[in-house]
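Entry 12.
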Amino acid sequence: QVQLVESGGGLVQAGGSLRLSCAASASMFSLDAMAWYRQAPGKPRDVVASITGGGNTDYADSVKGRFTISRDSAKSTVYLQMNNLRPEDTAAYYCNVVGRLYSYSSPRSYWGQGTQVTVSS
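Predicted 3D structure (tokens):
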């Protein structure tokens, strides 16, 4: 069973930076799409940034130019560098990975447990 372990959340003032990390607990045969989502209280979970196996990235309009997603496939890890944070970025952040545990496995979607990011004004 694969678990995604997230770290890097916390409390930061507006304009500050945080770097989130999400590492798979087991070495996976392949990692396809990796993404970060966020969910504020009373709101749906929305995608923030995604990166394909080929390294193509996509971002929500609200974070373009401020957030950067990257991956280290050898470490089965995805990162989210967040700069110039705003109070509206406050949310629980979740990583999502689609991959195969073994060569004969079907692709599965895995979720992290979430890490809280709070930005004070």
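Annotation: The mean pLDDT is 94. Residues 36 and 92 are 10 Å apart (CA to CA).
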